[in-house]
């Protein structure tokens, strides 16, 4: 398995494009991914009880045959809290894309990210769809078209041999605050030319999203429009992947690598962030405990502020563990920041100040917690809390 | 029932004092409350699984006879994550105070707030206790001695007639961040000369703390040292209060007013805060739902940032409701900011921009949510998220 240069359109049979249609002032704001063959598809959605209209339409589409051939995405307007008109608009987006691509409506997923409570200007969207190219587009433009306040595009491309065939998998994501100022959302789209049935795709996607995307936090706010969609069109012509085989294992590792990489890129590009924080919890009673504790630590405003201030404030880490509701024994706790141990068996230990300062000055800081109560582990990712975060979120006006 | 000028020593038979013993550079850092008669007592403690040593000692003391005659409190050092030595130090504090006041050890509660992982300098503490006055102290000094990064002292004093006798109740609190940079904690102490058995005191305290102190959030971090203690010494000589009588009702209202007032003062004095945010949720399916939803809204970093920026960003409010896990129907939601309605039946409505700006510029902003699914209600209090919060928590160094 190796990382290669590529775009969301690198797997065989996929195409993508993005254009500016006027939802944003200047930047690209609408794009699509198209597969020349029907693709097995799976998706996971936000757990927020308020769901954007596109999620309802996409969920319905996937329910028909678990197959997709296109995903149409706009940024700047989330199409959430928009009532019946919003639902109609989402269907209209789907219909327009399907017509232009010669597909059934249910073969097109739609996704939106942006301001809540604003209707989509459908004239602009219609013009945007007209301007999108089916096969001669520029896939990098798609990566840009889905962004809101993100500072960089986020993508990864992998290849590996599966059943003697070269399989490629690409992923792209956006998400800066988990929600930005009314700019909802983390979105991610994954394409692969692997031949794999939707049932396995669905099962693996749920697991990987749980281990990666669901373990990042920028500000603790879960958006109304989060969505991850994976399409597998089989163009690599490998023999259909079967569960619990080496081929399945390779595919599973690829999906994990793609989702983890994108999740970390989202955390690093969190609103106002200056560094990525990675928290590992080891020897927990259960995996659920380990993930929960890791996420509480990385989500603590106090830990996040301390990391911004480059302060090895383990008291805040132990405090977050304490209110995590996970199982642990305070007198067994070991905590490391980078290579430096700060707590042993629940008591502070001396560390090398200069080395610690070097560790905290880096753009990735790792925190490792050893609970010593079991055999499970979990990881979570986040970013520091900075003046810039407050500025972005206070100075934005609706 | 009326609010009167007073201190924690205003109820009959109570005395208090505070001095500087060297835990802080200059400010007062140790103090006590003393009752000349045995007082019925009750306490609630942090839910954090990591608990400071003083909590263990106080819990044990209260378990003996549910009576206290003194509470000894220091600031600057939390005596948490300090192992066996920490427990010994807490017992030593208790013993020293008991000896000086001529009490049994178990009649003295101890509380600490400050840096985690640091041992109490017991020589200084000993000198502090020696310097404290039993009956001729200055109670206002106690209010100051328990502070960490608080900008103001927080107190309230009430009087009411109960069973033909004038009963006084006072409360004092500290707490700036729910945890400050390793400065743990919300602490509150309530004194009253009412005659009431500890069982009722305990029951009422739990309920009121749940409705008030547990409904405030500054940064979502629950400290290791939180503690609320109430002492009722009976010096008002009212007939012992019995459940479900008018006297019980009056006492209950007094306790509610004291805890709500202190809770709001803590929220308003939250680290870096410029305003108090009060969120009411009405017509919820259950009280638990209403409280949960209110707290999620007031705890959202995005809502908090918006309030700092004086932006009526209802999208963030609806989003927080969505991930609260409370029962609601998005299409029924009404939301008001101050007197201005921003959402009706789940859809945005026009509001008066100038009036809205006036509302958001005030130092208290109320947000009201009507779920229209039931008959229960709940309130939560918090503060805005500001540059100053980040500064306080990033620039502090351990």
How far apart the termini of chain A lie comes to 45 Å
CATH architecture heading of the largest domain in chain A:
4-Layer Sandwich
Q: For the record, what is the CATH homologous superfamily label of the largest domain in chain A?
A: L-amino peptidase D-ALA esterase/amidase
Q: Helix amount of chain A, in percent?
A: 25-40%
Q: In CATH, what is the class of the largest domain in chain A?
A: Alpha Beta
Structural account:
- The structure is a homodimer of 398-residue chains.
- By secondary structure, chain A is α+β, with helices and mostly antiparallel strands.
- Chain A folds into two domains: 265 residues, L-amino peptidase D-ALA esterase/amidase; 120 residues, Roll (Ubiquitin-like (UB roll)).
- Chain A contains eleven helices and 18 strands.
- In chain A, the strands form three sheets. In chain A, strands 1, 2, 3, 4, 5, 6, 7, 10 and 12 form a nine-stranded mixed β-sheet that branches. In chain A, strands 11-18-13-17-14-15-16 form a seven-stranded mixed β-sheet, with helices on both faces. A two-stranded antiparallel ribbon of chain A has the order 8-9.
- In chain A, helix 1 crosses helix 2 and helix 5 packs across helix 6.
- Chain A is globular, with a radius of gyration of 22 Å.
- About 2% of the residues of chain A have low confidence.
- At the A-B interface, helix 8, helix 9, strand 16 and helix 11 of A face helix 8, helix 9, strand 16 and helix 11 of B.
